[in-house]
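Model: You mentioned two targets. I'll fold them one after the other.
Researcher: Yes, keep them separate.
Model: Target one:
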Amino acid sequence: MKYSQQVILKRWIPILKEYERTKAKVTPRQFKFIKNLCEAHHISRKELQRYYRKWVEGGKKPESLFPLKRGAKPGSRRTPKEIERNIMKAYRRFRSNRYELVCLFKPYYLDKTPSPATMDRIKKRYPLNERDKKVIKRYEKKTPGELAHIDVTKIPKDVRAL
């Protein structure tokens, strides 16, 4: 159990048990009113009720007090299978790179068009067979330096005169 979870339990479980005693008006209770309980623990009544509701709905288990996970659920934002199939058909037919695929599908899917990075992830999920891999152009050279290039810049005349 994480330290932050221990802090939550140590703070809230005694408060919630005292809240139940105060609410039920059981004789040996520390606070006469719930308002007094909230003031003593520096919490609002709304916050207390929210934690109590979570605790009761969770079967009064300590884990129910922990914050829920936030954000998208795994797989909820995945590209639909139909779009993935169309992307793979186009990739296998035209051998397009990820940017060309985005440009190709932008007019059809508009806002639903996957990003270039997603295009690569889709291509990774459906790998090519050995025969198709050989067809792809590679820029592998036999000797070192074949892919080298030189940038030429223009030097002002007054510097050349020196």
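Model: Target two:
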Amino acid sequence: MRPKGLIVAIDGPAGAGKSTVARELSRRLGYVYVDTGAMYRVVGLLARELGLSPDDDERLGDLAGRVAIRFEPRADGTQAVFADGRDVTEAIRGQEVGEWASKVSTRATVRERLVAAQREIAREGGAVLEGRDIGTVVFPDADVKFFLDASAEERGARRYRQLLERGQSAVLAEIVAEIEERDRRDRSREHSPLRPAADAELVDSTQSPADDVIAALLRRCRQQKP
């Protein structure tokens, strides 16, 4: 048994609801929530701002290794993200930054440095981590593993509604196409491709409300706890 509790791994493609589910699951378990996707978004944001090439392994790896990323819970239940002390919570959620995050995440140097940081954060347990390769690469020995999925059409519709709620313009067909391209890139990349761990429990959220998914995962985690 790890000193602080279980390590819970939640993997899946973009828009499957991982962040919503992982955040609430961690709250109910009293665990730390680690949004690994936000870490790649931070690197993507900074690389874009610095004018780096998404193919520059050395400079991207250096950036990922030196940036100090910190998560801070908010009173409203959400989580703020800081990069070297700067609040980038909103800046990293833009569609273009998401594309940059997907590109830089294919670089082995970036993944190696961020995976090391993720392992350090959760090494004593008591953590819910969500991303693309938590159960396969970051913590292959995680106590509980889930792979959360949904159809590309449903994931696109969710993203479309989020953007409209933020007052941003969006075209649903374009968002679905971007999600399908991101899926292709994530699943076919050489390093840490997106795939379910052999021992992960598959959860399809296409037609399931988030509350139902959270309740199901919570039951499974409580069964695992001694």
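Researcher: Noted. Anything on target two?
Model: The longest strand covers residues 144-149.
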